[in-house]
Amino acid sequence: MSIQFTNDATTFLAANINASVTTITVVDASSFPTLASGDHTYITLSTPTNSTKEIVKCTAIVGNTLTVIRAQEGTTAASFTTDDRAQIRITAQLFRDIMLAYASLNSYRYTATAGQTTFTGTDIHSATLAYLPNNIIVMLNGVGMGTVDYTATDGSSIVFNVGATLNDEITIVAFTAFGVSDHYKKSETDALLAGKVDDSQVLTNVPSGALFTDTVYTHPTNHAISVITGLQAALDGKVDDSQVLTNVPSGALFTDTNTVYTHPSNHAISVITGLQAALDGKTTESYVNTAVSNLVDSSPATLNTLNELAAALGDDANFSTTVTNSIATKLPLAGGTMTGVIAGFESTGIDDNATSTAITIDSSENVGIGETSPARFLHVKDPTGGNIVAFFESTDANGSLSIGDNSGSVNVESDAGAMVLNVNGNTSNGGGNTEALRINTNGNVGIGVVPEAHHNTHSALQVGGNGVWTSYKPQGASGEMDFQHNAYYSQAHGGDRYISTDEATKYRQVSGAHQWYTAGSGSADAAISWRYGMQINNDGIVTKPLQPSFRVGSTAGFSAGTNMTHNTTYHNIGNHYNSSNGRFTAPVAGVYFLGMQGISGSSTASSEQNTRFIKNGSTFITDNRTRGYTEGSYHLQTVLELAANDYVIVNQDAGTTYASAQHNQFMGYLIG
What we know:
Layout: E1 10-12, E2 23-25, E3 41-46, E4 53-62, E5 65-72, E6 85-87, H1 92-102, E7 105-111, E8 118-120, E9 136-140, E10 143-144, E11 150-151, E12 157-160, E13 169-175, H2 186-193, E14 211-212, E15 217-218, H3 231-236, E16 253-254, E17 261-262, H4 275-280, H5 285-296, H6 306-312, H7 319-328, E18 347-351, E19 357-361, E20 367-369, E21 378-380, E22 398-404, E23 409-415, E24 418-423, E25 434-439, E26 445-447, E27 458-463, E28 467-472, E29 481-485, E30 487-489, E31 496-498, E32 502-510, E33 513-522, E34 531-536, E35 542-543, E36 549-553, E37 562-563, E38 568-573, E39 577-578, E40 583-585, E41 590-599, E42 608-615, E43 619-627, E44 633-642, E45 647-654, E46 665-670
Parallel strand pairs: 20-21, 26-27
Antiparallel strand pairs: 1-6, 2-5, 3-4, 3-6, 4-5, 7-13, 8-12, 9-10, 9-13, 11-12, 14-15, 16-17, 18-19, 19-20, 22-23, 23-24, 24-25, 25-26, 27-28, 28-29, 29-32, 30-31, 32-33, 33-34, 34-35, 36-38, 36-46, 37-45, 39-40, 40-45, 41-44, 41-46, 42-43, 42-45
């Protein structure tokens, strides 16, 4: 059995393989070595990125089919797909096999960490690196490295100039020193052969076994038949195998002439056909005496006859059946079902082979475990003073304990580490059928619902599906506490998510402040974009960042009979004022404050100025009438109840208004 290898032996898989197959079909195996019976080579299977590698031992190649032994040299059998690579690379075992064949080199194999430059000590096969400087080959992922790429001078470590990549394979081949001993130069060999017998001096027809010193012939002590003249011919005239009589009795004699047979007077048993078999079937007296003695053995005198034994068995010919039927009425040691009452039974204790009583059943049928005077139907106590009195464990994924009355039960269940409380159970099976409460492994609680995967930095109580109360675990004023509907703080996403497809709300207490948030409808588990609606800070100040409010002005003047459109916006929270048509539209039903101011643009003292609020284009609300000179100031204010989508405009009914964004303004806000 020998190792075989060729240069540049590489190909690709022709079909997918799993981790267990031992025959692999490749695209072209012609570059691989020819393997005779007992030969082998090592082939590395790898993905295109080299992220998965497996070394196999190839023991036969027929056409393009390889017979292999999987998972060699510490690698793991893996699955590979079409076009993954199969090639002969330099491996540690390849060099070891070469060493076994030639005993002149050692090899070492290391798997690099990210950025590793120094390789020393034991390799992945527990071999300790040792080498002679200038007698090594260093390979990175099967490719030889130049001596300028590393330093190897101390005989025990290799230092790369550039750090290796994670999981790079480093192979180091170290050639051992060797020398030739016990040899002669040609001139020394010629001197030793001088004077010896050469071809011209060799004797012919020398008997087998004849010995020579340098010049003296010594005749051998023994001779072969062929070298003794006439011996074979003399033997040829004697009796051979074809002339020997068969089936001659033991002791038969022949005279010298080998032709006269003398029958012996006595015969051995073996030469009389059938005699030994006939004798073997007979019984001797000694045999019978021994058998009877063994049967009686050391039986007492009253039981050493068949009659005495029959009497002892009650002369019952069916004794075995009688005993079997009797035993069938007994309770076996392994336990069984009692069909009657054990009258007067009272146990003072069942000993567990320890120093104290384990279980007690008193006269009132109270049971005590660890308690010798049970006060209730079942009284369990840890006599050692431990804090775990009882432990109930199921081999199933769920274990439960039920407590029931005559109309139902409560069931406490362990579900993969979570505690579940079930109610409205059926006492006939001891189980709860409605989950009422669950505490999962993070300590989060669900009432009537399995709690969502809340973030592990918060403690959560989830009620009835969409109601959630969460609190930041670390203590401190900056830790928030939230009351949410249809929202939870997700562990998987690190932010608030919808529980179900619907709107969401949140009330938060944080840093001494109260905050309210809303969100539009979103899909289950989608991220929530909160709208920050109101806050009462630690000083009791209320702010409503989204409260509808606006203030606008106009750089253009207005004449009688026109609706004012203010083109300068100072603020417009919610964008409910439309500068293109001058309308303020109520986003929700409520009571609103509305106001306007302006400066008269009239040139006469008796001119009349009249501005008014109009709702929904036709309903007159209120107005402001003034008479005066140019640039006389006037104001209009009102508190108005509007329905959602009602709108209000400012109408210049009479006179003119001066063009000035600072003086000609329209404003309003939602009161509540």
